[in-house]
UniProtKB/TrEMBL annotation:
<protein>
    <submittedName>
        <fullName>Phosphodiester glycosidase family protein</fullName>
    </submittedName>
</protein>
<feature type="domain" description="Phosphodiester glycosidase">
    <location>
        <begin position="94"/>
        <end position="278"/>
    </location>
</feature>
<keyword id="KW-0326">Glycosidase</keyword>
<keyword id="KW-0378">Hydrolase</keyword>
<dbReference type="Pfam" id="PF09992">
    <property type="entry name" value="NAGPA"/>
</dbReference>
<dbReference type="GO" id="GO:0016798">
    <property type="term" value="F:hydrolase activity, acting on glycosyl bonds"/>
</dbReference>
<keyword id="KW-0732">Signal</keyword>
<dbReference type="InterPro" id="IPR018711">
    <property type="entry name" value="NAGPA"/>
</dbReference>
<feature type="signal peptide">
    <location>
        <begin position="1"/>
        <end position="22"/>
    </location>
</feature>
Length: 279
């Protein structure tokens, strides 16, 4: 037995050291990335970056940082109770300068499958409770928060804008434990929202399903957000829904590469049930 331990232990330690070294290299890559930064307004910046070797894969990341202290009153949710619309259409209808797709929705009948409230009015209720939708984004003119859904009675909350989605990725600066399942563990395009310690809201999209952008697992997305400064973060609907809108940045205002048309361009938008946006 002792001989077996002496054989296995060095290999195990080497395996652990390899993982830690890879994580350190990935974190350094994100933190030191020469992001292409484009100011949208004072306190609103769109950042884009491509990685040839992040999590041993090619990654294309776009995100917008919004100074909450300056724009808290103008960060909102827009939703339709039944009709699905492209993120860009939702954005145009609400005079948005920045927008991201929101939560999960009913692809057949329209509307969100999880709780959504806009302007103090419930738009959709939860069709069926799931482990996936375990986090809430809550917005008001005085506060912004991302919380575990189990930590607050959000349906009775005074917050006028609330979106239930998930999973919760980061809480109090720590990565959350995630269930092992294909949704979490396979690489897909991803969308997420985060709040940082220095009072910024991050709206982020990671492209995927392309040789130039392979997408992320949710644990990889959580790490990326934490390295970008997230204190609290939650996943949004991803896959073909992942869309980031920045008014005037491109011909159709979409800055990432939505995957529904299977082409690495800005044209493959999918219709969704709601968005998070800056007016």
């Amino acid at each position: 037995m002792n001989n077996l331990k002496s054989i296995l232990l060095p290999g195990f330690l080497f395996f652990i050291q390899t993982i830690l070294f890879a994580q350190q290299a990935d974190s350094v890559a994100v933190v030191t990335q020469n992001w292409k930064a484009t100011p949208i307004k004072k306190g609103v910046v769109w950042k884009q970056g491509h990685f040839d070797d992040l999590f041993q894969s090619q990654q294309e990341i776009n995100f917008v940082e919004i100074d909450i202290r300056k724009y808290r009153k103008r960060i909102r949710i827009a939703a339709d109770p039944a009709q699905l619309k492209k993120t860009s259409r939702f954005a145009a209808e609400n005079q948005a300068i920045v927008a991201i797709n929101g939560g999960f929705f009913d692809m057949k009948n329209g509307g969100a499958v999880d709780y959504v409230k806009v302007g103090g009015k419930t738009i959709n209720t939860t069709q069926k409770e799931t482990d996936r939708a375990d986090a809430v984004l809550m917005l008001s003119k005085k506060a912004s928060a991302i919380q575990p859904g189990s930590a607050i009675n959000y349906q009775s909350s005074d917050f006028p804008d609330i979106l239930l989605s998930g999973p919760l990725l980061v809480q109090d600066g720590r990565d959350m434990a995630l269930t092992n399942n294909p949704f979490n563990d396979n690489r897909h395009p991803r969308s997420a929202v985060a709040l940082t310690a220095d009072k910024k809201l991050i709206l982020i999209v990671v492209d995927g399903r392309n040789r130039l952008a392979q997408g992320m697992r949710l644990d990889e997305l959580a790490k990326t957000l934490r390295w970008l400064g997230a204190q609290d973060a939650m996943n949004l609907d991803g896959g073909g829904s992942s869309t980031l809108f920045v008014k005037g940045a491109t011909e159709n205002n979409i800055v990432n590469h939505p995957s529904d048309n299977k082409t690495f361009d800005h044209e493959g938008e999918r219709s969704v049930a709601n968005i998070i946006y800056l007016r």
